[in-house]
Specification:
Number of domains: 1
Number of strands: 7
Number of helices: 0
Largest sheet: 6 strands, antiparallel, barrel
CATH architecture: Beta Barrel
CATH topology: Thrombin, subunit H
Mean pLDDT: 81
Structural class: mainly beta
CATH class: Mainly Beta
Helix content: under 10%
């Protein structure tokens, strides 16, 4: 995996690694049924992922992302929050997701995702 240098104006806590994979993402909607989308991940760090989607998301939206975990003999489901969603024209939307705990007081186990 390739480490990516981030310019000093970035506010990231962890370095990003270029990593391409198709992921399933469950939108957790409080006012309606949850839906499953496909995301095309292009990078990952200990604190989140960058991905492309055909669908728009809103900042603050909670999701569950299914990440492949070959060493764990299966997939891991990780809670995340949408930090940004920008139009990428005909390519869809560029989405920034930050991993978070499933419930208050619970910590994210970064070993599962990075």
């Amino acid at each position: 995996m390739e480490q990516v240098h981030i310019p000093s104006q970035e506010r990231r806590r962890h370095p990003r690694t270029r990593l391409q994979a198709s992921l399933h993402c469950l939108r957790l909607e409080s006012d309606g049924p949850s839906t499953v989308d496909q995301l095309d991940m292009f990078d990952m760090s200990k604190s989140g992922i960058g991905a492309m989607s055909d669908q728009s998301y809103y900042p603050g939206q909670r999701v569950v992302v299914r990440l492949p975990a070959p060493r764990a003999n299966g997939d891991r489901h990780v809670y995340a929050r949408v930090m940004r969603c920008r139009s990428a024209g005909l390519d869809g939307y560029e989405i920034g997701l930050r991993f978070e705990a499933a419930s208050k007081g619970e910590e994210v186990d970064y070993r599962l995702v990075a």
